[in-house]
Amino acid sequence: MALWHALSANAFCLKDSARPAESIFYYDTAPSGGGGSTPRAVFVLLHGLGDEADTWRHILPLVSAAGCRALAPDLPGFGRSVSSGRISLSSYAAAVARFVEAVVLPGAGNSGTLERPPVFLVGSSMGAIVAEAAALHKPELASGLILMGASIPGGPGNRALFALIKRLFRRKWYRSYRKDPDGAWRSLAPYYADVESLPPQDKDFLRARVMARVEGTAQEQAFFSVQQSLIRVFLFSSSRFARKIRRFKGNILLLWGEADRIVPLSSAETFKALRPDIALRTIPGAGHLPQQENPAEVVRLLLDFAVK
Known about the structure:
The protein is about 45% helix and about 15% strand. It is of the alpha/beta class. An eight-stranded mixed β-sheet has the order 1-2-4-3-5-6-7-8, with helices on both faces. It is globular. The N and C termini lie far apart (about 40 Å).
């Protein structure tokens, strides 16, 4: 799977000797501003279902220019990361925790203390739920959470959840795009306020990317495996997540595209009601993937929240 051209120098691969059959691809940017080698904050950016680290392609350089560090992994089974085990929300939470310990805060897992600079887990769509699960799995690794376009409790409305369940048992629609590039491109439209208004370079990249996704058997397997896990969590684990979120000591920010047609803004309100200190901000000119449609506003809100 091709890299976003401007990030080729920031591409790395993490291998764990305890898991020789697995690897994590990730982008990592050192800060280019801020007057020092220590970043003001670290953002670990987690993509959504059927997406990859490149969804953050416009966020990464902006965060770095602000004197912060940004890392964006491909979750196991997606993009260029390789998984050898069963994929689920819990396995993703554990993988993200290992990634933070190994790359962001080496030694933090043994010391049990959070090192500075502060680390924030940022998730888009499914990635928001993975960020939640990882932070609740090992709270000492994150100073806070920034959830974009999804959360538990909350999540998709009943109609969207029913559509997910239907798709779970119908791989035929997924594979049909392999012979229908125009249909694969059109399948992206609901995730954007206006996909046709993206810059030509982005549209060309996404056209190639969506075909790479549907043609990859490993990515297909990851898509349906984690989707099944997410549905179980939506249906049976919301109350457990709610209890843990109330006890989580870190700060939480919700970001929602004003034109999100995938997960309604009412879901954010459901989550926000858990704690009076949870902030909610909407992003104009954006759908379910505001990091692609309005990256400057996303970064402004990230920095306002995380950098004091």
